[in-house]
Amino acid sequence: MSVYFLRRLLLALPTLLVVSLVAFALRTNAPGDRVEEQFGPDSSPSPDPLVQSVRYDKKAKSMGLDKPVFFWSLNARTFPDTLYRVFPPRRRQWLVNMASQTGNWQTTASYEAAVFETVRMLEKQPDSIGAKTSLRPLIHQLYNGAPETLDSTLAQAKRTAVDLPEMYPVLEKTQLAFIHWHNTPTRANLWMPAFRWYGFNNQYVHWVTGMVGLGDAGLSKQTKRPMWSELRPALYVSLTLNGIALVFSFLLALPLGVWMARNAGKWPERWTKRSLMFTQALPLFWIGAMLMMLFATPGMGLHLIKGIAINPWPGGGLSFFQWLGVHAVKFILPVTAIVFNNLAMLSLLMRGSMLDVLAQDYVRTSQAMGLKAKTVYWKHAFRNALFPVITMFGRMLPGVFGGAITIEYLFQIPGMGIKTQQAFYNQDFPMLMALIFLMASITIVGSLLADWLYARVDPRVKLG
Fold first, then answer.
1. Integer-rounded Cα radius of gyration of the chain
2. How many CB atoms sit inside 10 A of residue 371's CB?
3. 383: Cβ contacts below 8 Å, ≥ 6 apart
4. 3-state DSSP call for residue 194?
5. pLDDT of residue 193
6. What is the pLDDT of residue 32?
7. Residue 342 near residue 249, CB atoms below 8 Å
8. C-alpha 173, offset from chain centre
9. Residues 284, 287, 291, CA angle at the centre, nearest 5°?
10. 6: how many CB neighbours lie within 10 A of its CB?
11. Per-residue model confidence (pLDDT) at position 171
12. Which pLDDT score is estimated for 369?
């Protein structure tokens, strides 16, 4: 058994690897500026782009963004192996666009340095000079504009700087740097690949180790709190809610399915089957709403439960089990709704599987040998009929993310469903990618649990 599970875990690693790669790629390329999302925009931005870059660099380092993105990179030889350290991203993108025109990174960097010198010289001029106001947007275009417009922008800037004698020499230098950039292309470098190996100290490893609890998984865009501090309470709540519901669903559905198979064709079984098919057609949110109206709404129904909203955990200095004890009554209705929704599917599945097994030769032989009906059904047929139900169990476990959204939103339960909905609504991409990775992990755990149950139910299953 242990050898089998070790093999299955090793086989699951490629799946988790692919999921983690996809999630990390989506997280890395999500729209928006991750540094500004965490720290907010610069409250006192400097007109000097180089000063802005230095300020941004300090914030990016605190988030680990100064590390390589992945183990290796494969791009054109034009670009340096430290391109990922150029901050902020808009500056990096502008340099990439410039270098992609000629293939010459050195002349691109020289032009940028000349532009930055021009900016610093302009800011030293007195604000009383009107030409400074006219020149500032033109200089801004020199390090933000499209490459094809720079020549005309430089010419216009030189004409505007006639009243600023100190600006003319630096604009001349900038224009010479632009001409040098334009006239010394090395476009062959754009077609020559360069492979760079960065090792294991990269953003991907940092993120994955954080996701498995061995490091920092990053911060939520919405709350600015560590990812696991946000996810762990919601995960505990959802696992508790759905775990209790699954246990009661199977405890009720399995005996009911066996009873229906034993009494197949009789009028009580026919009416039970029709009732289950009717309940299966009822939407989960409608079931929950009816339960809420009948048992938890003042002025309507019985009003046995006083309020449905559950305060998030942690809170009030309570442990999780203490918190669960305080709110246990409020879990009755959502658990009942989930059980009611699952009961029909599981009971009918158990009934069909049981009827298939009862049609087997060994069961008929057992009956012909005079064995008691109870022994035939529960000792010989029941175990073999469980296989489809166990398979369904493995598929239902990841429902803590999907199916829980409706019930958690309806009953205001602070679980994974609400967390997923909030992440989508607020475009919290780091949280969404963490949820994808976590959902894949729980899916694999559900598959392993199903395999373990196969072996427990039928010793003939050779897991090794």
1. 33
2. 15
3. 457, 458
4. strand
5. 92
6. 77
7. yes
8. 49
9. 140
10. 10
11. 86
12. 74
Beta carbons of 351 and 261 less than 8 angstroms apart: yes
Would you state the pLDDT for residue 404?
Answer: 65
Parts of the chain with a pLDDT under 50: none
Q: What is the DSSP letter of 379?
A: I
314: cis peptide before it, omega within 30°?
yes
For the chain, the straight-line distance linking the first and the last C-alpha, in angstroms and rounded, comes to 6
Structure tokens at 377: 């059904």
Q: What is the DSSP letter of 359?
A: T
Give bridge partners of residue 197 from the DSSP assignment: 72
Report long-range pairs for 117-124 (Cβ below 8 Å, ≥24 apart).
117/170, 117/173, 117/174, 118/142, 118/167, 118/170, 118/171, 118/173, 118/174, 119/47, 119/48, 119/49, 119/143, 120/48, 121/166, 121/167, 121/170, 122/164, 122/167, 123/47, 123/48, 124/166
**Maximum Cα–Cα distance across the chain:** 114
Residue type at 136 in one-letter notation: R
Residue type, 246: L
Name the token pair of 254: 């399995």
Contact 382, 430 (CB under 8 A): no
Query: pTM for the whole thing?
Result: 0.75
Report d(CA 27, CA 19) in Å as an integer: 12
**Of residues 27, 46, 213, the one with CA closest to residue 123:** 46
377: how many CB neighbours lie within 10 A of its CB? 22
Tell me how far apart the alpha carbons of residues 445 and 394 are, in angstroms, rounded to a whole number. Answer: 8
The rounded distance, in Å, linking the Cα atoms of 174 and 180 is 10
Domains of the chain (ranges, CATH numbers): 34-208 (no CATH), 227-457 (1.10.3720.10)
DSSP for 237-287 reads HHHHHHHHHHHHHHHHHHHHHHHHHHTTTSHHHHHHHHHHHHHHTS-HHHH
For residues 169 and 300, give the distance between their C-alpha atoms in angstroms, rounded to a whole number: 83
Identity (one letter) of the amino acid at 109? Answer: A
